[in-house]
Design brief:
The chain is an alpha+beta fold and 316 residues long. 31% of the residues lie in helices and 28% in strands.
Length: 316
């Protein structure tokens, strides 16, 4: 491990130690020291930039106990970072990445949201302010809050031209997701958005870990996007969808025309999720002929489970 790599991992680790409140104060100071005009209000921090792209991440994690120690292991020649308390890569990774973009000299608009894990509370508050009008003039939005190494998730933004642009420019593969802050932001401002992988895994559990080099790779990918001076504006085109309300009182979105290969049908699905009430990882088996039917059945049967608690699924 080189000295420079150790230094960068320590910078990331310090972010993992902070509470949401501490993070908010720290990020306000960081943005101000990098010559942004900082707007800090209930639910979010917003700073308008010079590049017509917004990058966003959230300041909370699901872990009730704050991370105070982490370990580093060799993983296929890369650095795997984790903590017995839960490292909080979701979404400390996104915060580290946005910081690095700024330190590398890029000045996109920036939005840090509170309480994404509680249903996108911070982004919901942001879209009720006048600042959301700034987003209407941007080319598109990037969220840095996705597991894995090379996913691009568009949620209910169904703009094929934008999907093609992102997948070609990044080399990342289109994947499926349930919710993130850009779901609120895109719908409010009418601009397309994408959530890109940050190199974390097993999120919402204490087994969560971060592959540091995968996070660095996405930083490089985003920098290439920000350097594209010929990029045009991509509008938000909503996918056809239906909504239902669970016991939390939030609307969960499921898409009739999601980007799945639905030519093949299935008999059911095993869903892996974080059961916060029982405080452990759990499994459920549901019947359905398509992915949409399976997830719909699962959330009807398990209204206490948040959509962000879904960890993985297996078709059979």
């Amino acid at each position: 491990m080189t000295e420079d790599m150790i230094k960068e991992i320590k910078k990331f680790g310090k972010l993992c130690y902070k509470t949401q409140g501490e993070m908010k104060s720290y990020l306000c100071g960081f943005l101000a020291s990098n010559h942004y005009k900082v707007i800090s209000e209930d639910g979010f921090i917003y700073a308008k930039g010079d590049i017509p792209v917004l990058v966003t991440a959230h300041m909370d994690t699901v872990h009730k106990k704050q991370c105070n120690m982490y370990t580093i292991h060799n993983y296929k020649g890369m650095h795997r970072i984790q903590s017995s308390d839960g490292i909080g890569g979701d979404d400390r990774c996104g915060i580290y990445m946005i910081k690095q973009l700024i330190l590398d000299g890029y000045r996109p608009s920036v939005l840090f949201c509170e309480d994404e894990e509680s249903g996108g509370i911070g982004s919901s508050k942001f879209v009720e302010t006048k600042y959301v009008e700034d987003l209407e003039n941007l080319n598109y939005l990037i969220e840095l809050d996705r597991r894995n190494a090379n996913d691009a998730v568009f949620y209910d933004c169904d703009n094929p031209e934008f999907t093609e642009y992102i997948t070609i420019m990044t080399g990342y593969a289109e994947n499926w997701g349930t919710f993130s802050d850009i779901c609120n932001l895109s719908e409010a401002c009418g601009i397309a958005s994408v959530n890109l992988s940050c190199g974390y895994y097993n999120e919402h559990t204490t087994k969560e870990y971060v592959i540091f080099e995968e996070m660095l790779n996405t930083i490089n990918v985003v920098e290439r996007l920000l350097e594209d001076e010929d990029c045009k504006q991509y509008v938000y085109i909503p996918a056809k969808k239906y909504k239902y309300r669970d016991d939390y009182g939030w609307f969960r979105d499921y898409y009739k025309d999601a980007n799945f290969d639905v030519a093949e049908t299935y008999t059911g699905m095993q869903i892996v999720y974080n059961d916060r009430e029982a405080k452990h990882e759990d499994y459920a088996w549901v019947d359905g002929e398509t992915i949409e039917e399976c997830f719909f059945a699962f959330f009807i049967e398990n209204p206490h489970v948040c959509y962000n608690d879904i960890m993985d699924y297996y078709l059979y």
